[in-house]
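Q: What does the predicted 3D structure of Alkylation response protein AidB-like acyl-CoA dehydrogenase look like?
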Amino acid sequence: MTTQERIERSYEPGAYAAQARGWIETNLTDALRTDRATQEASLAEKIAFEAAQHEAGLVGITWPVEYGGHGLGLREHLEANREIGLSPMPNAVNSIGKELAGPIIMTVGRDDQKRDLLPKILKMENIWCQGFSEPGAGSDLVALRTRAEKTADGWKVNGQKIWTSGASKSQYCLLLARTGSADDRHKGLMLFAVPMESPGIDVREIVSIDGARSFCEVFFNNVMVAEENMLGAPDEGWAAASRVLSIERATNRMYRSWRFESEIDHLVAACRSDNRTYQILKGYSAEIAQARIAVENLKGHVETMVADLLNGQQIGPRGSLPKLYWSEAHQRWAQMAYEVTTRFPLDGGQALTDARARFETIYLASRAETIYAGTTEIQLDIISKRILNLKKAA
Ligand SMILES: Cc1cc2nc3c(=O)[nH]c(=O)nc-3n(C[C@H](O)[C@H](O)[C@H](O)COP(=O)(O)OP(=O)(O)OC[C@H]3O[C@@H](n4cnc5c(N)ncnc54)[C@H](O)[C@@H]3O)c2cc1C
């Protein structure tokens, strides 16, 4: 289906949002809501909820129908994401499958790979993790040393990945490995779809600051990967990964600006529930105003990029602008919001208990926001060199 055909299938403006809102209101249970201090939903419940979101048309919106998607346009994607952001829905378990592996497979995969792998991502049959970073290769990703060596039986992989989010619950790893010499840098890199149950893969969880066990180290010891699990042509790994990463940096978690907005609304509403707390909040009015301005700026970034993509324009390095702006502004907001909640009276009632729990989680998670998907310094480097065309000082 061409982009034009997808646009023609589009809904009336606002209709998709109304449908999404209705579905969320009916299906988001208390256990799943992130604005309640109650018991968190289990992994199985979150997986089922995510599969149901796909059925309801909130996920895979722009993916072609033949690969399990809904064959619609970015406008519907944006409408649904606004509603997702405005609700206290949990973050996706399979965001790497849907926002990174899926688009890469769509771009460089063979048709049989697309037909096999893509629907299983949307149905939550296959959760994916991203095996890019290594102990010696983060910002400088092309320093990676995990090797894939060609043998008569396929590719033999040896090496170590780190900070692999969700590896211990994943069925597949999107692996970036080196097939050439380490001196080749951008050349000789290849992407593979590696089944996590392959013999020789050892996953070790790392406990993070919030007590979560999402991060992992993944060791590959003589892991055999079938020829047919190569994604794209040899040497195409870097080009494919960077092309998709720039689009994804712009459109990933498109709901973020609206989630940010709903967090501000939540804090204000919680403080209003208790007069003592409301007096505390008044001391932060300048910071709240700054956060609201940041939200409006971010919405502008996202809406402009969606309009540009719909007009067939490339996003390229501009994807770094919303990533940098959101992560810095949201981290400042999260620190302030957490500070406010630490001043809540302990006898203030349930609304304050819920807000205290939520903003502590948000604050801890925000510490990583200026690191993952490329650190602040790396975004500044991209913006200065590739958008502003600034030269290095002599
Ligand atoms: C929550 C979270 C989830 C993640 N999930 C995944 C995942 O699923 N899969 C995966 O592969 N990786 C993942 N990562 C890893 C992430 O991509 C890396 O942490 C990131 O790229 C930075 O690399 P590094 O940690 O090696 O730090 P380094 O690259 O060593 O950077 C250390 C510091 O030096 C600065 N720096 C580095 N180079 C330059 C430069 N050229 N100019 C100026 N400053 C520089 C950086 O900005 C940073 O402040 C995750 C990270 C986090 C925090």
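A (community wiki): The structure tokens above were generated from the sequence. The domain at 128-235 is CATH 2.40.110.10 (Butyryl-CoA Dehydrogenase, subunit A; domain 2). The mean pLDDT is 92.
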